[in-house]
Design brief:
Elements: H1 23-38, H2 42-49, H3 52-62, H4 75-85
The protein binds zinc ion.
Zinc ion (ZN) binds next to helix 1 and helix 3.
């Protein structure tokens, strides 16, 4: 995968953009993508939360992110995800 700045990221790797306002929030969001991908949940997350970014935003909200650059996660979807995965 090629990022907008030309960086090449291999599947399964996490790439943190230093221009993001919160490194920790970005990391949690990216860990969400990684966790869903590695557990075979990518399609299910898209089906249940609308798209892969929303799923990562909900994951990030639940696990302590404070800055949301991909649209955030509505409270009811946070509750849905907590219930779905027992968080
Ligand atoms: Zn994302």
């Amino acid at each position: 995968m090629i990022e907008p700045d030309g960086a090449v990221v291999q599947p399964g790797q996490i790439c943190l953009n230093p221009s993001q306002p919160s490194t920790i929030s970005t990391l949690i969001h990216e860990l969400g993508h990684k966790w869903f991908w590695e557990n075979g949940l990518w399609d299910r997350v898209i089906a249940n939360y609308g798209n892969f970014q929303r799923g990562a935003e909900c994951f990030a909200a639940i696990w302590g992110a404070t800055v949301f650059g991909a649209g955030g996660c509505p409270g009811e979807q946070q509750l849905q995800m907590r219930a779905e995965f027992g968080w």
